Amino acid sequence: MLHKFRIGQTVHLTRDNLRVANDNSFRILALRPSDGDDPLYLVKSDAERCQRIIAQSAIKRDPN
Fold this sequence. Notes:
Elements: E1 10-13, E2 26-35, E3 38-44, E4 51-55, E5 59-61
């Protein structure tokens, strides 16, 4: 499966049963290798000090 988001793009995390995502926007820092059929991304929010690796299925486009 191909990455559908690009480096530098602003995205939001989706809400699911396992995680409550904060409402901050995240910037994609890097594309990571796929974890099976779900591409991974290195993302960072300006509101947090840490970076996260997030699966594509847990990301949605920034509505702006």
